[in-house]
Every structure is written in C-alpha cells, then in structure tokens.
Description:
- The chain has one helix at 4-19, and strands spanning 26-34, 42-49, 54-61, 84-87, 91-96, 101-108, 111-119, 125-131, 134-139, 145-152, 155-158, 164-165, 183-185, 191-195, 202-207, 219-222, 228-234, 237-242, 247-253, 259-266, 272-278, 281-286, 291-297, 303-312, 317-323, 326-331, 336-342, 348-354, 364-366.
- It is mainly beta.
- Strands 8, 9, 10, 11 and 12 form a 5-stranded antiparallel beta sheet that branches.
- A hairpin with a 2-residue loop joins strand 25 and strand 26.
Amino acid sequence: MRHRPVLLGLFAAVFLALAGSSSAGTSGSAVFVQTNEATGNQIAVYDRNSDGTLTRAGAYATGGLGSAALPGTESDRLATQGSLVLVGHRLLIAVNAGSDTISVFGVRGDRLTLEQVLGSGGQFPAGVAVHGNLAYVLNAGGTGIVQGFRIGDDGLAPISGSARPLGLPNGDPPFFLTSPGQVGFTPDGKQLIVTTKASGSLIDVFQVEPDGTLSGAPVANPSATPVPFAFTFAHGRLVMGEAGASSLTTYAVRPDGTLTDPKSQSDGQAALCWVTRVGPFFFVSNTGTSNISSFRLGPGGQPVLLSAVAATTNPGTIDSAKSGRFLYVETGTVGTVDEFRVESDGSLTPIGSATDLPPGIEGIAAA
C-alpha cells in the first residue's frame, strides 16, 4: 500500500508524456469554442500548438442563435456542461438555445462544414450526449425534455417516440439554478443520466431501450450533497460535481438505475460545477471563486483533494476540455479560454489565454 503514491506518479508521468508527444509546430489538434451570441451563434476554432497555446484558425456560423438562462447576468449563460460535443473527430454538434435548434458540422482538422440545422425537440437546448449512433439533446426550457436522435451517414434524424419530459419548474428561458445541468450516457450506453441542479437535487437515470428510446420515467436519485451539476465517469463510477457544498462525489450506478455508495469531498471553494478528467486527475471549475481545484480518486472511489486552488482563471470560470496534456477553461464573464499544461503530479501551469471571444461564451470541445 505504501507504494501506491509512487505507482500513481509513474502512471501519471507516462500518461501525460504520451498525451503530449506531438511534433514541433502545431500538434494537428483543434479546440472548438461556442460563442453563444444572441445575434448569431458561432463556433470559433483554434489550432493547438505543440506547447499547448492556441492560435485562431477561423469561425463558423451555426445558423442559429445563442441565449442566456435567467437572470442573464451570470457567467454561466447556458448553465450546463456538454453544450458542444465532438463525435469521433468527424462531427461537431452545437446547441442554439435562442432558436431551439441544434447544428451539425462536418469536421476536417480545423475546418468545419455546416451540414444540418434541425429542431431540438423542445425549448432552450443546452446540452448533448452521444453514445455510438445515438444522441440525446437536453432541452432545458419549460418542464425540460430530452429528445433522441439517430446518427447516420446523412447526419442526425429524430427518433420517433423518444422525447421524455423531466418535470422541472421552469419557463423559457429557464432560471439558471433550476435548469438541468447535464445529459450523458453511462459508458456502456445502457443508461442516460440527467442532473436537475436545484430542482430537487436529483440525478435522474433512464434506461436506454434497444430501439434507442428511453424508459417511460427515470429513477430519481437524491444527490449526496446539494445541486448536482456536471459529471464524468472513472473506474466504473459516476463522478459528479455538486455545486451546493462545492463537492466532488462518486457513485456506483446499479443496473436498475439506482445510485449507491456515495463518497464526497468538498474543495472548500464556491460553486464547483464542471469536471474534466485528464489521466488520473480531475479538474473542477469553481465559478463562484474563479479558480480550478484538482482531485484524484482514492480506494473505493473516494475523491482525494490534491489542491484546493490548482490555478486561478479570469472571472467567471465555467466549462472546460482537455486536449493531450493540456486543459482549456472557458470564462464566461470576460470571454476567454485560459490555457494550462497538466504536469505529471497533477499541478497546472498557466501558458496563456485566448482573448478574442465575446462575454457569454459557453461550450467547448477538443480533439
């Protein structure tokens, strides 16, 4: 047992060395950022240089409009994780919350081609989940609806009978604290998870049927600490950011949709909402304190706080994405993407910021 930290350090070093083993100049990877502008949503594209810094490569209109959850002054305009999703380095799916549509782009390196603009199946689309040839859109407006789509050679097509209401107490646009936080599949694709944030602090788990539709109603699990927001998976467990106590919590997800064995750890900051995994490390965005905390998972999935303040950001820390050994963090208040190198011990080294974006950005994906 006393060799565990050494082994973890060796694993981290090997992982990050492999992740960052790109050639000199540009790495051939790209970072995509959604501007979420009410006058016309766009996707800004950046080339990732070999040192992790970003160079603007272009911008592409989505054919839809951005928007903001109420009251509209907070940094987190869409109030979700996963509003921009890269599918296998070939498709990019964006939400247009102001026009109730989604946009589908073909991807070739750092170039995009707009292929589809289609209805989201509800109001205020704010998130997308993809597994295999299935996509589900999280519509946050009104009572909330998840709508399924099939991904085929000709793009996305709605799945008949796949819409499921979430029963949330919202209007259109929704209030940012009570709108849903994320939609996502379990790694095996058999379940679909939706977080409700302050609308009951519930983690809803739907069963995914063989035809791509969902069970009629989800299993509604109360979160271990209040306001479940964004999540990822690791070591067979759900890893959840919970904003009320600024906690990272992991759960076992049972086949029947119930969540068991919660293990939590607060970072002592304010409003832990987003979470991104880079190798063995988990970096969380604390929008209330404009900083990043770092965790790893200990035995049994217990979150272990590595650094309460691994890095500070520009004001309004929100969504993040990883590319190789680098972490990119959006700030919604001023409209930047702050750039960090992830070191082998899980620490973060600031390397710059992309500053040519408008306030209110939300949605980031990286190759």
